[in-house]
Write a structure and sequence with these properties.
Order of helices and strands: EHHEHEEEEEEEEHEHHEH
Largest sheet: 4 strands, antiparallel
Structural class: alpha/beta
Radius of gyration: 35 Å
Number of strands: 12
Number of helices: 7
Helix content: 25-40%
């Protein structure tokens, strides 16, 4: 009689393979469930949270949860007498009865893996990551989803001692009508002082320069649509004093305005309490290149301006405080290192000019 010996993995080999599998498993877990979402979230919140500590916190959560679930989802080993290779301690197997042509199995094990809970864990975490990624994409790339097309506002641009530029964005109207009156006597009716044409080429924005005003005088103005079908609430601005003048004045300046979808620009409430004479915007009014470009069309850049001007606190500043603007790099591209002629034309000559530059002197 011949004895056949089948070598199956020993307990020591199983431990080695388990350790290797555990290392590979945790590596895949960290790559898929930690580095990718942590990088995404850190990239989006980089102006608020240090990237390092965010990554540490994110990894800690996954290690804690993963360690708990590792114990729940560990491999279950079942050795039963119904297994024909079950070793009974006497050198033979119970199924064979110990006769001829017996198969001796040394250090044999039969394993039954039950991965159902592991599958559910991977599915649940993967689904959460997909949902989180969807929210991030929706917030980071508004020009692909939320276009802020219904944004409407009126604003005062540059002001002198005898003039003021009134700017507005109106929908469903062919013209923008500008009305004005003295703020000191609100019993007087508004007087129509000018009409500016609206068109899709400027994203339905227009500007009109009101002249013949009195120095150091407060006025109320109002922008209305054709046939007065729509009108903004009255806003107030003040002309500059005559030159020369010994009067002192204050002003505010700022730059780098990065608005996230869920936040309001509440800092502008503090500016109104200071009662400055004017505001100087020193660049980076929008971040059209953050986190990356998806498009370089004029509509893409229009969306970022509409998104910025949709904030109610920002509107309160623009509607009452004379403003002067310059652009920096993020209106076009970070560092201007990847600009093209078409990109410059859409970002600056069209979008920037329609929403901002026309208000300047």
């Amino acid at each position: 009689a011949h004895r056949i010996i089948v070598l199956l993995p020993t307990q020591k080999m199983n431990k080695v393979l388990s350790v290797i599998g555990l290392i590979c498993g945790w590596f895949c877990l960290l790559v898929f469930l930690f580095f990718f979402p942590a990088a995404v979230i850190a990239f989006y919140f980089y102006t608020y949270f240090p990237v390092f500590w965010l990554c540490v916190a994110w990894m800690g959560i996954y290690i804690i949860v993963g360690t708990i679930l590792l114990g729940v989802c560990r491999r279950r080993v079942t050795v039963g007498k119904n297994n024909p290779y079950h070793h009974n301690g006497r050198g033979d197997n119970e199924a064979g009865g110990g006769g001829g042509n017996q198969m001796q199995v040394e250090n044999a094990h039969a394993a039954k893996i039950t991965p159902r809970r592991t599958y559910w864990f991977i599915f649940a975490v993967g689904l959460l990551n997909i949902i989180a990624l969807g929210f991030w994409i929706n917030a980071a790339f508004p020009s692909r989803w939320e276009k802020f097309e219904n944004t409407q506002l009126q604003a005062v641009g540059s002001v002198t001692d005898t003039s003021a530029k009134i700017w507005g964005r109106l929908l469903a109207s062919n013209d923008m009508l500008v009305y004005i009156r003295l703020a000191s006597d609100t019993s007087l009716p508004f007087a129509l002082v000018g009409i500016a044409s609206l068109s899709s080429s400027t994203d339905y924005t227009a500007v009109y320069e009101v002249t013949g005003l009195q120095p150091a005088t407060e006025y109320q103005y109002q922008v209305r649509s054709t046939n007065d079908a729509f009108s903004f609430p009255a806003s107030t601005f003040r002309t500059f004093p005559s030159i020369p003048s010994s009067n002192s004045f204050s002003f505010v300046f700022g730059s780098c305005f990065f608005r996230r979808p869920w936040e309001d620009l509440t800092n502008f409430k503090l500016i109104t309490k200071l009662s400055p004479s004017f505001y100087m915007f020193l660049g980076d009014l929008i971040y059209s290149d953050s986190p990356v470009y998806l498009s370089k069309t004029v509509e893409y850049f229009y969306t970022y301006y509409r998104r910025m001007f949709d904030d109610k606190y920002f509107q309160s500043i623009l509607s009452t405080l004379p403003s002067f603007f310059i652009f920096s790099d993020h209106e076009l591209d970070d560092g201007w290192d990847q600009r093209t002629e078409q990109q410059y034309d859409n970002a600056i000559n069209k979008a920037w000019n329609s929403y901002v530059a026309v208000r300047n002197p």
